[in-house]
Amino acid sequence: MTMVYPTSFHPCLVLIIFCLMFFIPLAIEAKDVGFSVNLVRKNSQLRVSTKANTPESPINANLGHYLMEISIGTPPFTIHAIADTGSDLTWTQCLPCKNCYKQRNPMFDPQKSTSYSNISCDSKLCHQLDTGVCSPEKRCNYTYAYASAAITQGVLAQETITLTSTTGKPVPLKGFVFGCGHNDTGGFNDKEMGIIGLGGGSVSLISQIGSSFGGKRFSQCLVPFDTDVSVSSKMSFGEGSQVSGTGVVSTPLVAKQDKTPYFITLLGISVENEYLHFNGSSQIVAKGNMFIDSGTPPTILPTQLYDRVVTHVRSHVALTPITDDPELGPQLCYRTNTNLDGPLLTAHFEGADVPLSPIQTFISPKDGVFCFGFTNTSSDVGIYGNFAQSNYLIGVELIRHNSPNSPFYKLHELVRRKKSYAPNGAFTRVTSNNGDYLMKLTLGTPPVDVYGLVDTGSDLVWAQCTPCRSCYIQKSPMFEPLRSKTYTPIPCDSDQCNSLFAHSCSPQKLCSYTYSYADSSVTKGVLARETVTFSSTNDEPVVVGDIIFGCGHSNSGTFNENDMGMIGMGGGPLSLVSQIGNLYGSRRFSQCLIPFHADPNTSGTISFGDASDVSGEGVVTTPLVSEEGQTPYLVTLEGISVGDTFVSFNSSEMLSKGNIMIDSGTPATYLPQEFYDRLVEELKVQINLLPIDDDPDLGTQLCYTSETNLEGPILIAHFEGADVQLTPIQTFIPPKDGVFCFAMAGNTEGDYIFGNFAQSNILIGYDLDRKTVSFKPTDCTNQ
Description:
Blueprint: E1 3-4, E2 35-39, E3 55-56, E4 59-63, E5 65-72, E6 77-84, E7 90-93, E8 102-103, E9 117-118, E10 133-134, E11 140-146, E12 151-163, E13 171-185, E14 189-191, E15 194-197, E16 200-201, H1 205-209, E17 217-223, E18 233-237, E19 243-244, E20 249-252, E21 262-271, E22 274-278, E23 290-294, E24 299-302, H2 303-313, E25 317-319, E26 322-323, E27 328-331, E28 334-341, E29 345-349, E30 352-357, H3 358-361, E31 362-377, E32 382-385, H4 386-389, E33 394-397, H5 411-420, E34 425-433, E35 435-443, E36 448-453, E37 455-456, E38 460-464, E39 472-473, E40 488-489, H6 495-498, E41 503-505, E42 511-516, E43 522-534, E44 542-556, E45 559-563, E46 565-569, H7 576-580, E47 588-593, E48 605-609, E49 614-615, E50 620-623, E51 629-630, E52 634-642, E53 645-649, E54 660-663, E55 669-672, H8 673-686, E56 688-689, E57 692-693, E58 699-701, E59 704-711, E60 715-719, E61 722-727, H9 728-731, E62 732-747, E63 753-754, E64 762-767, E65 772-777
Parallel strand pairs: 3-34, 4-34, 5-35, 6-15, 6-36, 6-37, 7-38, 8-39, 14-45, 15-46, 17-47, 19-49, 20-50, 22-53, 23-32, 23-54, 24-31, 25-56, 26-57, 27-58, 28-59, 30-61, 31-62, 32-63, 54-63, 55-62
Antiparallel strand pairs: 1-11, 2-18, 2-48, 4-5, 4-35, 5-6, 5-12, 7-15, 9-12, 10-11, 11-12, 12-13, 12-42, 16-51, 17-18, 17-33, 17-64, 20-65, 21-22, 21-23, 21-29, 29-30, 34-35, 34-48, 35-36, 35-43, 38-46, 40-43, 41-42, 42-43, 43-44, 47-48, 50-65, 52-53, 52-54, 60-61, 64-65
């Protein structure tokens, strides 16, 4: 998901490269320096062990998004929120919820948490989101909107979030700024309890936890879109999110005024052996023309590049594109009863070539249909969505002044730091949930399980809380703040409340917030502090105190009953990554999302700290273009190759830096319309099948009929310095049996997203301190 600002506000976002200023003190009750968060499908019961002594939190696919699980409050209350690198605010639906979308699980109740604390409207934190307003009670009320028209409104608060560790010991993070949504609308389903903003903004999870975990960096590895719901992948933060080793490629992050997105530069895309330049015939590519967004499913490319990519993809697919299914729209889709055998694409980022197999470039919206996981937009900035990110370990790192990678780093500091803590990590399981990914965390004291949508495109961690005046239906009980000993509402005059741009004071002087998403989803509630507990590979909980989250009391949108909120994994200070980063060596994490159609008994993982390291053979790295504190993880997409044909991002001479965001909370990849159209045309050329054109359910999507997996071309997302290969399993999804549709779409609104379909089976590491995003092809089902 991509967060949008009110038109009347013009944020000034400055990226600090070497020095991270962390504005929220977080207390840590463990000596771990990293942890992993497992990304699991919503129905997953599987818990896969990884590193020892690693905090963890489940994250899984959920209808194109990735749900990240964290615990918030005291006692811990578990929420599952969309991991979104394209936004900053971490929020959850909180009680009371006046106008909330239906949530299956109970909403977070700030009154039941002893660690919940509302942020006052006169605090600096209230102004972090730029839409904070004072309620009559002097609480920081916020409104957070997304490009999808989703909106969350509520109270900004500070709370304790708790992560588990591989040793079983909880790691509490106190003072986490989040949005307690009391009025939330948008395209949420009932499994989504909020959004975890993982962007580069000051309130994102990455920014808030950066100092606690050794820096603003993280990595992710998203499971493919169609991975079994029981399969999870991981997201890692801090030092454990380093992406290294054989196969690693890196691309620089490009700094822009908007700090939230992680901008990188995409030079072009190859379809098999044909290279498609981002700008067509032009040799000049604007820096930061893409941003990486785990909250946006499809990869969104400028229309001129998309059209060329599609054309070449079609030429490599020996099927006829679907043209008779109105539900698919103009997407490039094919019918096949097996996985689409599409071409291999390579995303050529600046300094990093990332191969994309069909599992990363084609998604199956319905049985027997696989659609190209890219779309287009009229804007010259695209989004590298989570479809293409799947099965890649992507690391994002922003270099701090005391980082060994900084020229200002001194050797004696390294020696001293190595003695101060053990090289531990934390992680959580993430499960796939119909295109989204749910992350499990335990919120409050006593702990309450919460499954939230993992969203690297937003910051706020939030869960539906009781009392919920207007909430979406959720299967599990909502979080009850009054029953938590660690729940503390944040006053409206606190800095945490002021960090949200849409906040106000409640009659009780609590920080009321409103957090909105691009899909019109909204969470409104009270910002609070809570203890969050994560599970670990050795079943020992990791408790993180004073995590700031949103207790959503009015939440609405396209949530399903499994979604209990959202886990913001963006770059802002309120995101889960920012709040816990300083506890684990740096603000970094990694995720590994399972494919959309993976076995439901498998799950992916989100890792934090030391556990989020993305290294080894096959790793490529692209620079984060997002500025300091910016929510979205913006990267630069230069183009997409369909087989050997390169489809450039745009036809203009300049390629904008940070033109696409990586969003785990958005299933499809959204590209500039002209880029998308060219991409689809190339896909049609390379796919030896006739596209489906007689199925009204498919609409205009590029879909094919196939009895087996669609044998589409390999797509390569060419980010700046990193070429990410996307197989058909990442670019075509089966919406129904025998149909495979291209998991990308065109966009004319200027917001481009690399969705979670493409992110599946890619270990993706985000390092906010080093300002990098790393990709590594990985079987996320075995993480």
